Fold Amidohydrolase 3 domain-containing protein.
Amino acid sequence: MLLRNVHRAGRLVDVEVAGGRVRAVGEGLRAQDPDGEVLDAQGAVLLPGLVDSHVHLTQWAAARRRVDVLAARSPQEVARTLAASAGPGGGAGGGAGEDLLLGHGYRDALWIEPAHRDVLDAHVPDRPVVVVSADLHAVWVNSAAARRFGVDDPAGVLREGPAMELITRAGDVGAPALDRWIAEATRAAAARGVTGIVDLEYAPVASWERRARPAVRVAAGVWADWLEDAVAAGLRTGDALAGDRVSVGPVKFVVDGSLGTRTAFCHDEYPSGGHGVLRLPLADLEPALRRAAAHGLGAAVHAIGDEAVRVALDAFERTGCRGSVEHAQQVHPRDVPRFAALGVVASVQPRHAVDDRDAVAVHWAHGAERAYPYAALHAAGAELRLGSDAPVAALDPWDALASAVHRTVDDREPWRPDQHLPFDVALTASCGGRSGVFVGDVADLVLVAADPAAVFASGGADALRRTEVLATVVGGEFTHRTI
């Protein structure tokens, strides 16, 4: 493949791709393969492919088909939205069982009245209803669904581990349908310039063995629940799992919960009481990290509250293991420099900082100055990676990038602009650490209509979110193109 007339690093050049890699970059290149494709890019801008470093792909694929209740401001609004969907012609909402109604995206952190099964019963009494929270750390059911799935909580609300298990059960639509949905979701991601994702879905990694040709590269994470299975199978991070696009990712360890569910493990007490949930204490995380590392498996440690982040960093320090802290939404200033010192990646999701600003003001009022410290982490030398946490936010790297450099999506001023990332830093973090396209690189590339830095400078974050992707290339093959 020969890409003619592309803008790379401010120059108009040709780029030759062969054997899945960038073979040459220069002016007036001739195609070496007479049968290879020659594309005149007409001045399009060439960038490294974009990588979403934290996705729950099954949930994202399913959420695209479920009833969206994200805009609801109360339990009643959620119930009314679901009831309207459950009317004549209403679908099942992407769940197991034709009668099951599945909603997605409720945020109750600012609700005056809590979620309760009685509210759902009043609007949808005869059909099982399961509503997944926006952060995937809670699930809310009506009485019919409680009977079906054996939920005995009086309010019909489960959190953390039990919630994730129920979400998996309720969302089981069978392998053929799920694989089709995931294939569609990866094509949609490719259309936004994504060439790779880290899939941290709560599911056995073996499910990826039957999905050999997604439209993006997938590093399939292994949840700690299945660590021993991975060890027994001899899986190592980076090993090919299916075809040339699916590999084994890191092991995911979950230290705490989430801000939205008020289960993130924090130094300061929540207004409602307690410090959150410590799901995996240091005494358990440390040997688990050692076990994974001894068998060639990297680690992705979920830690949102500042005390959870400290537990994660302590475990990395004691074991000498490398890996990432996923989310790092609240970090004590004393722990900020430890990321670089320990070689631990800060894998963050900038859209959360935009969406959570009001919840932070209410629930982390005494720790708000420690929230989403992206610029501080960068200044201290931390290696950053950007992602979406889809379906918590949309699987769209341009939204993540825009949120990293300008923290607002409404008419309000940006929230804590002192923590904006420099544009070039955020773009590199969006490209999996790649800062440009060079000879010898894997040919995971994206062509966009205009220089994103110039788009942001002239049109702001909203214009950046609307970046026009003309073509996406994975391993030298087009996975999306409009030119």
